[in-house]
Amino acid sequence: MGTWCLTHHKTNRHMKTCLTNKIMNKKTFYAVAIAVALLSGYSAYNSHSKSELSDVMLANVEALADGPESSDKEYPMYINKTDKNSYKEFKTEIKADSTGAQITIQYSRTCTTYNTFCKHTGKEGNICYGSLNGLVTDCGMWSLN
What are the tens digits of pLDDT across the range 59-117? Predict the structure, then answer.
C-alpha cells in the first residue's frame, strides 16, 4: 500500500480516495506507455513496408503502360541514361590430338552490356527518347588463355 497515503490521511475515506487515485495514476501511466509503444511499432512497420519505385522502375512502368508502340515517344523531364557493365566469359574445349590424347584449350573474352533507360530529372527542357532505350551487349573475339 502507499505509505504516503497511510501517513498523511487519518480517516479511512481519505485513505481510500488517496489509494484509488494512486492506482488510477499507475493504470493511466501504463495505458499511455502501451499506447506509445504500439504507435511506435506501427509507425516503424508502416515506414518499412512502403515501397517506393526507383527512377528506373518508374520509367519502365510508364513505358510499359504506353504499350509496345512507345519506342518512338518522347518523355519530358526525363533524360536517357546508360549504365555500362563489363564482364568476362570463359569457355573450354577438349579435343583429341593425333595420338588420341585429350587437349584442353581455354578461351576468354570481354563482354560489355549497355542498358539505356529514361531517368527522371524533373527539369523542364529535358527529354528522354524512347527509341534509344534498350539493352545492348557487345562481346569481343575469343582469345586463347
Answer: 666 666 554 444 578 999 999 999 999 999 999 999 999 999 999 999 999 999 999 99
Determine the Cα angle at 49 with ends 43 and 53, to 5°.
Answer: 125
What is the DSSP track for 116-132? EEEEE---TT-EEEGGG
Rg of the chain's alpha carbons, rounded to an integer? 36
Q: Yes or no: say if 118 and 59 are a contact pair by the CB < 8 Å rule.
A: yes
For residues 102 and 135, the answer to whether their CB atoms sit within 8 Å is no
Instruction: Say how far apart CA 90 and CA 95 lie, in whole Å.
Output: 17
Provide the pLDDT for residue 2. Answer: 47
Task: Delimit the domains of the chain by residue range.
Answer: 3-49, 55-144
**98: which DSSP letter?**
T
In three-state form (DSSP H/G/I as H, E/B as E, the rest C), the secondary structure along 15-82 is HHHHHHHHHHHHHHHHHHHHHHHHHHHHHHHHHHHCCCCCHHHHHHHHHHHHCHHHHHCEEECEEEEE
